[in-house]
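Entry for flavin-adenine dinucleotide complex. Fields follow.
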Amino acid sequence: MTEVVVIGGGPAGMLAAIFSARAGHRTVLLEKNEKLGKKLYITGKGRCNVTNETDTESLIGQTVSNPKFMYSAYYTFDSWQAISFFESIGLPLKVERGHRVFPASDKSSDVIAALYSELKRQSVDVRLGCQVNGIKKTDGSFIVDTSKGEVAGTYVVLATGGLSYPSTGSTGEGYDFAKSFGHTVVQPVPALVPLNVDLPWVQGLQGLSLKNVRFTLFEGGKAVYSDIGEMLFTHFGITGPLVLSASSFIKGSKGLRGEIDLKPGLDKDKLDKRLLRDFEKNANKHFKNSLDALLPNRLIDAVITLSGIDSEKLVHQITKEERLKIVDLLKHLTFSISGKRSFKEAVITRGGINTKEINPNTMESKLVDNLYFAGEVIDVDALTGGFNLQVAYSTAVLAAISIDEKGLK
Ligand code: FAD
């Protein structure tokens, strides 16, 4: 009988299978796609941000849902261990801005190839095109019902992912398997996802990218996220690193408002002085031709329209009150947000198997002996920067190590 059955051939499943096999257990890895790591392939825009070279406290700090649940997992297999692991299986890495780690080749396919070689080296029985339809437990062992027949095992690791980018195979079946054993699932919602803004002036800025701006997200009048960085306007609203991160802090769907501070380095007073200097230089120009040094061209029209000041007005005719209104707009460019985009565009799923029902020191189910969870299927999600893949590895390695320790008892 196979000892360990790992369901799902994403990063969590592959690491669980490798570490289980390394510990000497007969291990089978079941993946419904014809290839392993279909989602891993599209990570980091095809470059795969493998992890973040940082300490465990930072990993916890970047975890949005249930960070405390992750303590043992992160301490068992931190990002330094992930880096050593990948280098040890023949994947040279490099570190970029923000401690983001990438394969030296910039190719996610090399990450998958290295993992696949290691699975083979460890003699993991990898079964592709193998759709799991259900899991039963009888007489202390599991029977996994698949499109290619039944697979029996003493231990099961459920690593089927969440619901985001369903085209990659993450379609949420793992939730149903867990529910069939009495587990509850915290309502999955899209996270790290672009946001819809149904305002013509925002959509009209499609393609414009802003760097070094502060984006603040308000929900029900309260600021839930605020940071400086990069964002992008699209035909439906806004996206880019700041916006994706902000989306992870949205709790409901109502009362959402975004605010951009276009000049976070200058307080209102300094910005007013700067504007005054520009206006003195351009005193005889039309208002519409006076902001070139301050704003990207495409934003000038939007700011002029929102200010309500006649674009043909001569700059020396602009009143102090009008100037202060412009300053206010530059510091608080505000718009209502109608909601998040769907799972199809979400980098990660928030929600999943309830962490209260999983032992954080082992990743074993508190309800079913020998059933383990790893990766995005669990109600844990983190911010961008390689942190979500680290969640997958840390939970997977902890599950594999715990199975080994349990098997030895
Ligand atoms: P998945 O990768 O979703 O793998 C689950 C696997 O289980 C799938 O292969 C699926 O086919 C299989 N499966 C599901 N149900 C069954 C079944 N019934 N039978 C058999 N097999 C089944 N994170 C980062 O840290 N860095 C990045 O650069 C990054 N970039 C991203 C870019 C995009 C566009 C997206 C969508 C995500 C990105 N992420 C990134 C997040 C990261 O991809 C996920 O956190 C990670 O893939 C989760 O791993 P997992 O193994 O838990 O789940």
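NOTE: Residues 7-13, 30-33, 38-40, 42-44, 48-49, 131-132, 159-161, 164-165, 169-170, 173-174, 347-348, 375-376, 386-389, 392 surround flavin-adenine dinucleotide (CB under 6 Å).
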